[in-house]
Task: structure prediction
Amino acid sequence: MNNFAYSRAADVADAVRQIAADRNAKFIAGGTNLIDLMKYDVERPVRLIDITRLPLRAVEETRDGGVRVGALVPNSDLAYHPLIEARYPLLASAILAGASAQLRNMASTGGNLLQRTRCLYFYDTATPCNKREPGSGCSAINGINRTNAILGTSEACIATHPSDMCVALAALEATVHVAGPSGERCIDFADFHRLPGDTPDRDTNLESQEIITAIELPAKGFAENHSYLKIRDRLSYAFALVSVAAALEINGGRIRDARLALGGVAHKPWRDREAEALLQGAVPERTVFAKAADRLLRDAKGYAHNAFKIDLARRAIIRTLAQAANATPQIQSVKKIR
Ligand SMILES: Cc1cc2nc3c(=O)[nH]c(=O)nc-3n(C[C@H](O)[C@H](O)[C@H](O)COP(=O)(O)OP(=O)(O)OC[C@H]3O[C@@H](n4cnc5c(N)ncnc54)[C@H](O)[C@@H]3O)c2cc1C
Ligand code: SF4
Result:
């Protein structure tokens, strides 16, 4: 680990000032990803700007019926917040599927969005990795790629985004509020994370001098018919091989609105509007779920060790949609898949 300076931000404007003054500085929130990356010598910030004392810990209702979540709300507090449990149980469930209780106590809402990939080679500085060192090559494409992506990959990178929370936020169509030197702006969740293309070193469209201040959830929470299913090698404390967030609005025996987002399969939470359109207006039954799964996975591409994910994702989508339609969501404390 390299030496680094440490300072505290007094307020959001001061945080932006400090990060803009030093292009090699980084914000630190819970530190559960950044400190690991520094220990592995993957990240080498010359300064850590501690943002943990900023007043960004509120969960509050918005005027248009949604909920605004401060960027420093710990993952545990968010999952167990009464507003989230009652109105956005899909989000609560996805958070509880992730990490461990101790990590969720430390991890912040903003930090969760910006956690970096778990590709083995990204953490191994002895190997080429375009994400860590642009232009050096991708060790995963012809290497051990069991956990890597099957959708939206490029010749430069086949990494996945590891978050569970973000998969639910994608399905719920959250908005990310950020502040930077030129003021505040909002980014639709679908536009926040990027596909690797030929710049896999950039995970998101957040500028380096910007800070996430909040996540906003729209009024519609799909509280009746939802499910988050996470398939992983161990039943806890492991990242998703494939995860599915399904949210349905069912009325008069038909699906009126449908959201489907996948984790563990791409560089960003993966949504496919054509697959969702197949569900809309349909009677919620297995054949329709299978058609939506096939549509979503039509361009999926497996590599030497991860081709199994294509069939796994297909079955997980069908299962999760059935759980959502039957209003029997996956319970994260009961690991048996219902
Ligand atoms: C062993 C282990 C298992 C895990 N398992 C899972 C899992 O199953 N599912 C899952 O979803 N996650 C999992 N995680 C990841 C964990 O959820 C993230 O590490 C955590 O959410 C990051 O939040 P943080 O506040 O600790 O971020 P930090 O480590 O403090 O920061 C992460 C990055 O975000 C930046 N940052 C932080 N806050 C802001 C902000 N407000 N504005 C701008 N930049 C900011 C930092 O500069 C840094 O680059 C696991 C982590 C570990 C260590
Ligand atoms: S998949 Fe991406 S993160 Fe993994 S080795 Fe290749 S370039 Fe690096």
